[in-house]
Prior knowledge:
The chain is mostly beta strands. The chain is built from 6 helices and 41 strands. A hairpin with a 2-residue loop joins strand 27 and strand 28. The chain is globular. The two termini are 43 Å apart. Residues 1-36 have low confidence and may be disordered.
Amino acid sequence: MHRYQTGMLITMCALAVGQAVDAADVQPDDQAAVGAADLSTVVVTATRVAQDSQALPMSVDRIDRAEIHDGQSQVNLSESLATVPGVSVQSRQNYAQDLQVSSRGFGARSSFGVSGVRLYSDGIPGTMPDGQGQFSQFDLGSADHIEVLRGPFSALYGNSSGGVISVFTQDAPPGFELGSTLEYGSLNTQRYAGLVGGDTGPVNYILDVSHFQTDGYRRHSEAQRNLLNNKVRVKLDDVSQVTFIANAIEAPFVQDPLGLTAGQVVANPMQAGTGADTFNTRKALAQEQLGATYEREFGANDSLVALLYSGHRQTTQFQSIPLATQAALASPGGVIDLARNYSGTDVHFTDRRDFLGTTLTSTAGVSYDDLDEHRRGYLNYIGTELGVEGALRRYETNLVHDLDEYFQTQWDLTQKLHATAGVRNSVVDLSSHSHLFVAGALPESGTRYSATNPVAGLSYGITDDLNTYASFGRGFETPTLNQLAYRSINGSLPGLNFGLQPARSDDYEVGVKTRGADIRADAAVFFIRTEDELGVLQSAEGRSVYENIGATERRGAELGVTADLPANFEARLAYSYLRAVVADAYSGCAGTPCTTTIIPAGNYLPAIPENILYAGLTWRHPSSGFFATAETLVRSRIYADDRNTGHAGGYWTENLRTGFQQKSPGWQTSEYLRIENMFNKAYIGSVIVNDANSRFFEPAPGFSAFVMFEAKYLDPRG
């Protein structure tokens, strides 16, 4: 954005908020929004039962609506999860490749989508049975809160090693609600949203629709996205209810700028990568999903939850595979066309009872998920015309399903001592059928992965406000279909890479939690050893080949602090230390064609910063509804390859969010200004791990400014 445009944005926001302060009937939006921070943390992701996290022997955080909504674009998880220690969510400024999400280093290597971390929205998995997840369909505009679970107990959610991220849609207020949002900012970023909701006795409903578009920071990085999210809860009687969920995303045109070499970053960080313009690299996406959850209470102590969901996802991606590579008979081409039908169910029963004079709460459940993928590959040229869909070179049907049984229990041994344990048995079946004859490829192939993973933890209350805990768990992460998709970069080895094995982890954690009248603090240290970790052998032109690498070890510490300070100030701190290294040497790959190289023990795992710090300070003026939040984010350098020859330097940036929230009879209005990278630092936002051409780097934008206006009509009578 030009400087005069940025100045106009700031001036517009200043005028709007100035008029708001002068209005005679202005009142705070609501006391929860402008008052002190809520230091209690009630979560359901940890144990599938709503309870305060203070006494739980695990690391779990909750991000409430104000942190997701106030002054935020509500487009990317990276906006909200910076305040959670142990989690790294990087917006790659490349909407064709989704976010780069990792938890305690798991998922950092993913070249497409999210793996190693399980995603949920209103209980419906955003992670497929193969472990591949997508965030793009999650609607933050209507989100009430987000819960983040890290460490050993994430194993109770099945095929994930690093953690669980769950988004929950808000309920409508009593009566009727109608709202709209307009946002405009740097890089021609625009977002328009509309929300309608209401509560009419037994029925509570929310419908949120939004449109997002941006020109992108780099050349060839334009993106468009349309979202719909609908939740309807029907109370059947005093003890049961059913909730219906419908959501959809349409991203008809998303350009892929690809990665840059170090030399290209120095020359011009805003340029597109080699081949992006030539082949018009891009992605189109459409997804529709339906789900229903039935909940019933049986007396005061027993309850049943049954979930059923189904959806379809269509993705077409144009890559920059060179013509010479595609000319090989076994090459799958340079266009990927994926049609995925998926469905599943999860049923669990919770019982709470007195046992030997103590309280015992147990949950037993079963889940089944199914994925039917039709994968086609086409040449990305016809004659001399590049970047178009050419001849069919790959056509296969891939089937994945998992069947899991799980059990977890919490035993309150005394008023201060609590034991939590559980186990999950997972069986994942994958099969592939090729509809085309390809020399060297089997027409039918498949494999089965299975694991039984126990977890256990003990929590002790030293005082009413101070708890300490210890926990252990075993994790399990299968290769995803995208990780299995290629056996070689040039396509000389056709078929799925069923030689890959699941990664298996032993995870140890100890921690302390404290809470006072004005402060909450959580601290944890952990050690994780992983065998057969899934790593990128080689990556080029958007295609990655994976391998099982040697054993790895992660040692880390996390600290999260939230405090109410005098004079209407609030402070938030999140610090993560993570040393993730190779424990046993293994054979890796360098360059193209691949040259075998030894990766020695002690090398750092790529794309994982050793230190991350978030510090935020908020000041509120309750009588006017004004707030301002200043944020600092610090990250140490990250390596871009297993050999640790390429790296992105560490950086620190400052952001500012400020705005007014007003309330008058029947109406609520808000005006926000958000400034990112306030001092215009030049830095690398994310890396593409082990790119064969050393095109590792994805630069982040400089100074950016955005304004947002909201209006909401409320009628408590309906």
